[in-house]
Design brief:
With 512 residues, this protein is of the alpha+beta class. The chain has 16 helices and 21 strands. The protein binds flavin-adenine dinucleotide.
Amino acid sequence: MTNQDTSTQPIAGRSILIVGGGTAGWMTAALLAHGWAKHGFQITLLESDSIGTIGVGEGSTPKMRRFFERIGISEAEWMPQCNATYKCGIRFPDWSTAPGYTSYYHPFFSQSDDGPIRAFYQNASLRSRNVDVHAHPDDFFISNFLSNHRLAPLPDERSGYSCDYAYHFDASLIGDMLKRYSTARGVRHLIGTVNEVRVKDNGDLAGVTTPEHGALDADFFVDCTGFANLLIGKTLGVPFNSYKDILFNDSAVAMPTPLDSDGTIPSETLSKALKYGWVWKIPLTNRYGNGYVYSSDYIDKDAAERELRESIGMLDSPVEARHLKMRVGRVEKSWVRNCLAVGLSQGFIEPLEATALMIVQDTVETFMTRYEQGGFSERYRADFNEKVNLIFDGVKNYVFTHYKLNSRSDTDYWINARENTKLNTDLERIYYTWDHGGDLLAELRSQAARQVYSPTSWFCILAGMGRFHDKPKKPAKDLQVYQPAQMRKFCESMLGHFPDHAQALARMAQAA
Ligand SMILES: Cc1cc2nc3c(=O)[nH]c(=O)nc-3n(C[C@H](O)[C@H](O)[C@H](O)COP(=O)(O)OP(=O)(O)OC[C@H]3O[C@@H](n4cnc5c(N)ncnc54)[C@H](O)[C@@H]3O)c2cc1C
């Protein structure tokens, strides 16, 4: 048996087998079909009809806009089909108990927000140096005001303003739509359950076997089998790095609720802390999705379901809840030999910042770029794996910061999360710089190659959760300070340029 790795050869014109038809599988198929079908690749997607998809995943980051732009599908085309709504940001109530900071909003922003961002940096930096100025991010960002008024992030031309935003959607419907898109562009779709994965003498994957289709061989494989982790983990034995010591949550329970009776639809995700985790509330055009993400080390599934039901007013409702387990962490390498892992098979960070599909997109796009730059040499593969791992670890650091900065003391869960000392150097330096009134912007710039989140997001979380010293001193008279009333006035003056969210969606659906 030789151990020579043949997957360093270019695969143009050869066959790619995607195993798994969840959102990750169909996003991969769509990106490959759009970018590579013209090069003569034969792309097949195989999915099981007896092993379901995870079926949750309703929030996204602004990156999702770039996904649809890239494959050439307009909002008017896909959003009504997927019950999608606009998302201006995420609101985090009850994570902090600091007076005046019991809720904050993580906004999406664009270049149009440069002025307010500078004002916010100025005030937040002063407050971190113990100067008594207003530093709550909610007063500085238009997106927070849009959410508060249930407006869509679609400014009219007169405003001269451009918004960034993301979406909420039904993940199963996105999968269905991308299936139609991909098969129309030549992707072969097979239904079958893999019962054997065959490996070549050199260690590369040779093919899979299903009762329905017998042996299916390919030159390259994409593992989109979700938490089953069939190719990259179970077959190729790539180790899994768990994040459980940093991110405690390993379970979720989800259930829908009806939309509000007044016909309005929020344009934000609500991520409210509960006793042993947090609950999401995501508006679609036909319902809310709700789910409690918690740690089974602290609460059992029945008690978690009860707490969820209580928090969303569904205690006596006959609507069934769905329980899910989560494997939080990432594989050591997402691309090994002739196999690329995408989606839950590659790793998962709990959905607090709704980043999973962003990582799917990043993974496939980076993979395609590396190939187009020069094939599958080991150098490109190593470079790819390093980049993908940095994305995972960067998201982990930011998500963990919500827990580290919490100031709740109602349960051991929150106390242990806050007292967790398993910080890496980057995080230690960020917290130290902030706590000692140092130059956080300079620190973040020095970490730029490893950061996924922008400085604005870091300032928002540190200031928004009220991580400040007590008893701040009065500002000196000549200090430049921005007054909250002034910032609020500016944001409010912009609201007339934005349409009502529910009405904008209804108009889009009608036009479609
Ligand atoms: C509680 C929770 C909340 C989430 N919220 C968000 C969110 O807000 N935003 C976000 O971006 N993401 C979110 N996610 C993640 C998101 O759901 C997933 O990243 C996304 O759905 C992609 O899943 P997947 O396609 O990798 O896996 P799955 O959906 O599990 O699909 C796996 C596929 O593999 C197939 N398969 C498995 N074994 C075999 C076999 N032996 N033979 C053939 N086929 C096989 C299955 O049939 C299925 O088609 C959330 C996840 C959880 C658990």
